[in-house]
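Journal club side-thread
Mid-discussion, someone asked how the predicted structure for our own chain would compare to the paper's figures. Pasting it here so we can look after the session.
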Amino acid sequence: MRAALQIVLVQLREHHAASQNRFISRYTRPADRHPDIDVGQRILDNTNDVLMKPVAPGTVIFHRYRGYGVITSVNLLTGWIAARFGSEMRTLDLSLSSDEVQHADGEPILFRRAPPERMPHARLMAMVRELHGAGYQRLYLYSWPKPSGLHWRWHLFTGRRNWMERAWREGWYGSGADYNFNPIMGWGDAPGATAQELASCLAQFDPQGLAQTLGRDEDHTDWFKMVCDALLPNYAYTLGWDSRNGPVPEALPVIAVRQGVPAYAGPQLPWPPGWARLWTGSTALTRLNGTSIRANSANAPSDAVR
């Protein structure tokens, strides 16, 4: 039994060495070719040629200092795994970003170093800005916190720019609570899709709905572009607040879309055009620009059902 295991380990080592040589010859550059592109960029340029392998409990990995091991647990939100090597009883925690972990055949397991977004709002803002530039200016993004305060919802709508009476379309709203575990919008998009790709996916998912956004709304488009320039890619805005914390803030509330980002310290941003005159209700009395208006809290019953 031990002899058979040694034979398997020898074959694995030989296969690992051969695969690593193929990988190096494929993705490293000669000195006289592509002098301005590093190995990492070559890998990104050839992602279509690389077969993605699963990273899950039970996956056999290779570490240059510990040899072959087996993954016992994975946290793909943070990029950390636990693995057991050889006859060791305890597991070893490894970072997929910095510990140079490889699959058993020598293919590196690459993981982004930046923390993942915990909400899609910044990506949605970039997509809406992209569509505004293409003439679809009657597309609006509403964002507000859930009653628990742990996540923020989002809602894309079109038609008349009324922040309180928004039209609802299937697939045009969601929550960061769902995005944490499935970072897609549900339009046939892939995780990490660019703003252009998201716009294309939305057009294919609901072409009739997107057609309704075609039109001019220059006041809102100019305001939205200014907000995007100030906040993206690490921050997003929210149009909801908790009335228990006081009256409506004078400046637009800003939230971070990922952990480890310092609090927003940029210039104060105005509320969207037409915001003040559309607020009606009876839950909070505020004073904005010297005029008393009534405002609903973020967890109004009409919002809580979605």
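Post-session note: The radius of gyration is 25 Å.
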